[in-house]
Design brief:
Number of helices: 10
Order of helices and strands: HHHHHHHHHH
Oligomer: single chain
Helix content: over 70%
Structural class: mainly alpha
Distance between the termini: 81 Å
Largest sheet: none
Length: about 325
């Protein structure tokens, strides 16, 4: 009897773990859109940190990220237990925030692109000044990165909660915890690699020797030095597009009319001769992206108007 009970328990555990693995895979796919932006933002936060302090700073921010998730995961579970009706509104708010953040980045790039380059140069000169308190500066950068991580982690946890909302509590706990750990390790492991990419390039470019091996390493180092800044730019672009895709996708699935419109559009384009089947596959993603852009523009406009109407706004600008 005890043996059969143990087998039943193991079977139940295996079933739960199988569900957890499947749900974690789905959640990881859904939250991957935030990952690109998370990588770009956190790597950018380390701009101006001295090379020898980059990895310790990444580790400090990673520990802060784990503390953030130790707050967010229980809060998400409490929300699921006590107010499950609030999950969809929370998802929609998270989607709107993603769209707003993406459009705000686009608007900032168009309106303040030249100022941003000057700001980065001033930042690097500021850090190079021996009179600057680098300990205090580093502490401020870490705090800022942890605050940014809290927002991005909240987006990931809310997205995951929406996926596992109908599952049992144990599955929710394991999936949320698994995503929290995997995303933290993945993001900050990649951030550590990204911020040290230029150092790897410098090391390889400095290799000496006239044989083919050192020459190849020097060539590879030079290419890495060119590639590193382009990688940062690419991560920023991919992250912004992913924010519109994920945020718009949440809105499309949460708002019934939008979902019907996208489904009807995909069905219509499927009838186009030749390319219909391909267009039908990519149409939902493109439509979600466009919905995300429109939602981001609308939220940014509302935020701007609210800021102008706030009492004392004019006096603060004067």
């Amino acid at each position: 009897m005890a043996g059969s009970s143990l087998l039943l328990l193991l079977d139940d555990i295996a079933a739960v773990l199988d569900d957890v693995a499947a749900m974690t895979k789905v959640a990881a796919g859904k939250t991957a859109g935030v990952l690109g932006d998370d990588l770009a933002v956190n790597a950018e936060k380390l701009t101006g940190v001295r090379a020898e302090r980059e990895l310790p700073v990444v580790w400090a921010v990673a520990k802060g990220s784990l503390r953030n998730k130790c707050i967010l995961v229980p809060a998400a579970l409490a929300l699921s237990l006590l107010a499950s009706w609030a999950i969809i509104p929370a998802l929609m708010l998270g989607g709107l925030y993603l769209c707003y953040e993406g459009f705000e980045k686009l608007a900032h790039g168009f309106l303040h692109g030249a100022d941003e380059a000057g700001h980065r140069q001033d930042l690097l000169q500021h850090v190079a000044d021996p009179a600057v308190d680098l300990v205090a500066y580093e502490r401020d950068r870490i705090r800022g990165a942890i605050r940014t991580d809290f927002i991005l982690s909240a987006e990931i946890i809310v997205l995951t909660l929406g996926i596992v909302a109908d599952e049992v509590f144990v599955t929710q706990l394991l999936v949320l915890s698994g995503i929290a750990l995997v995303m933290t390790a993945g993001v900050y492991g990649l951030v550590a690699g990204i911020v040290k990419l230029d150092d790897a390039g410098l090391y390889l470019a400095g290799r000496t020797g006239e044989s083919a091996g050192p020459a190849l390493l020097r060539w590879l180092g030079a290419r890495l030095l060119v590639f590193a800044p382009w990688l940062m730019k690419a991560l920023g672009i991919v992250g912004t597009v992913a924010m519109f895709m994920v945020g718009g996708g949440i809105l499309v699935h949460a708002i019934h009319i939008l979902g019907q419109w996208v489904a009807a559009l995909a069905t219509h384009v499927a009838t186009i001769p030749g390319l219909g089947s391909i267009l039908a596959v990519i149409t939902p993603t493109l439509a979600s992206t466009l919905v995300g852009v429109a939602a981001g523009a609308a939220v940014l406009a509302l935020v701007s108007v609210a800021g102008r109407l706030r009492p004392g706004a004019d006096r603060g600008q004067a």
